[in-house]
Amino acid sequence: MDLFLQQTVNAISLGGTYALLALGLAVVFSIMGLINFAHGELMTIAGYVLMFCGLAGMPFVLSILLAVSASVVAAVLMERIAFRPVRNASGATLLVTSFAVSMVLQVLFQNLISVRSQPVLLPQILSESVRIGGFVIGVNKILAIVATVVMLIFLDWFMKRQKAGIAMRAAAEDFAVARLMGIRANTVIAGAFALSGLLAGVAAVLWVSQRASVDPLMGFMPVLKAFIAAILGGLGSLRGAVAGGFLLGFIEIYLAAFLPPEWQEFRDPIGLALVVAVLLIRPNGLIPAPALKAQKV
């Protein structure tokens, strides 16, 4: 029972990170119909800022603020420089653009910083553990769960109570009508990218706090998993992205913990098979978006 509870905590921690990344993808897709595969590089940018802040001896709290801010700024610049000029192009053009931005940033990281993984200085408290009953929980996992809950509450409040969030929800429902009501396309799309950058920055802090390192390809695999989670939950659905992220986290952790040793080498294929099985039952995802196909502006 203790092992099951231990692994459940690990699954919630990992699933929360996937949920935040999937939310960032879903926010942009719901408005633009764009899957931004350069989303992972926003994570990497935040990770490198954490690294440089640590080397400079800055307080960790300040490092987090600077890392998340850098991710937000990078997301807004990415939209303005790379995606706005091709906004009215086909979906294929937008997709290729996102891959191009991702590759360019990866090459810049490799040539300007390092091709190897770099250590990130973290506070000692993040490596400590807390014993609750018969099992041990890492402080970093507790903070990851708390940060995920706080971010989800903030996002729910922002989307329902703030004018910018309401405008994004309206644009996600029907952008053409939303523009007729006076909502400016540039403002809403830039806001969506800024929000995705915020989510990517927080996810990067959680990811780095458990691995204590950063490399040029750090964001690739998490965002690939987040993309699977977004599809699993219902592409374009914010609640679906959260559900898909947590479900994928539970699948990964439970398979790693409870699959027999002789089956561990097949863990990833079995996980994908379970995802496919869910999609066979729910083809549009766990919580489908109201509009399955977003309109481009």
Automatic annotation (TrEMBL):
Compartments where found: Cell membrane
Keyword annotations from UniProtKB, A to Z: Amino-acid transport, Cell inner membrane, Cell membrane, Membrane, Transmembrane, Transmembrane helix, Transport
Transmembrane segments: 12-39, 45-77, 89-112, 132-159, 188-210, 216-235, 242-259, 271-292
Tree of life domain: Bacteria
GO molecular function, one term: L-valine transmembrane transporter activity
KW Cell inner membrane (keyword) present: yes
Membrane topology: Multi-pass membrane protein
InterPro entries for the chain: ABC_transp_permease, BCAA_transport_permease
Similarity comment text for this entry: Belongs to the binding-protein-dependent transport system permease family. LivHM subfamily.
Protein name (record): Branched-chain amino acid transport system permease protein
Source lineage: Bacteria, Pseudomonadati, Pseudomonadota, Alphaproteobacteria, Rhodobacterales
